[in-house]
Model the fold of this input.
Amino acid sequence: MRLADKRILLGISGGIAAYKSAELVRRLKDQGAEVRVVMTRSAKEFITPLTLQAVSGHPVADSLLDPAAEAGMGHIELAKWADLILIAPASANLMARMAAGMADELLTTLCLATPAQVALAPAMNQQMYLNAATQANLKTLASRGILLWGPDSGSQACGDVGPGRMLDPLALVERCCQQLAVEPLLAGVTLLLTAGPTREALDPVRYISNHSSGKMGYAIARAAREAGADVTLVSGPVALATPQGVERIDVESAQQMHQAVMSRVGACDLFIGCAAVADYRPAQVAPQKIKKSGDNDQMTLALVKNPDIIAAVGALAEKPFTVGFAAETVDVEQYALDKLRRKRLDMIAANDVSQAGQGFNADDNALAVFWQGGQATLPLADKLTLARHLVALIAHHYRS
Ligand code: C5P
Done:
């Protein structure tokens, strides 16, 4: 499965080769890719959206002005979702519109709005392909970094012979694999990772917790797995699916998380503490639900300190390469560097949770990463993209 978990947005424009697009979706999925399909108006003259919906397992997107689609995965989300946009077949007309920078329908708009690589599989009559206008458009697109895969030469549906045949689905899958290949930067490395919040019980029905969604930790687990690591994820309560190939151990409280980590840390090369562990827990857990009483307008809770899990890992005589997180609202760098030293970390990733749209619960984040004698800034991006960059940075320092 060379495309496991890769997100490929397949654009289909109007050309006879569109009949091969359904096969292409099947072959991409064989390799583990998640595929979503976007069709142009004219593509639907050649193949039905129903066919593509059936093979991809998702409704086909085709309109920029569809309120229902925009309420679900809107066009900007779709543009951000993709790891790769592949347009197959790419017609002469579509390429002309792209070369002109038009956003006249969903597919051309996505190409402008995406941070992902765009690849085109041109398919058209050989005379249209060789036309100076088409060749000029291809040159323009290539100069902007758009990949051109094909075309092949040979006999065409119209009876002509020459360049303009779309590459076969399997050849396109191979190009996708090469394009999205992840370097196995963490091959052979055992990673232990904490993620999510902890819950500190007050009584059988109530607890103290925090706003962590676990999204950043889960994205790191997935990115590390993609990079070849053997990943164990110790997770607080979150509403997220376990990334493929990752072993997950569910815990609730900080004490349980501490125990789960300390019993496994001896066997790991790399430890990442991404969990938002509650610093304190109620001194006593009431055996029955605490009742409110008529004469008590106030209530005082006695709290005791929880174990600092990452500091305990940092204090080990034979400690793994240890990476912590710092969620701060002010003086981010100063607090992060202080934590790096105090907890004996090898690296710390700090996020400024006072910024709207990043950090806790958000889908996007930005990180400032510090280590002894250096730092790097990972700018605002979706958490999976950010996690992949962070994993590459960690791998580099772990190996050096
Ligand atoms: O001190 P602070 O909680 O801000 O430090 C954050 C870092 O320490 C994170 O990596 C977090 O996972 C870890 N931590 C921990 N155990 C605690 C508190 C924080 O492992 N009790």
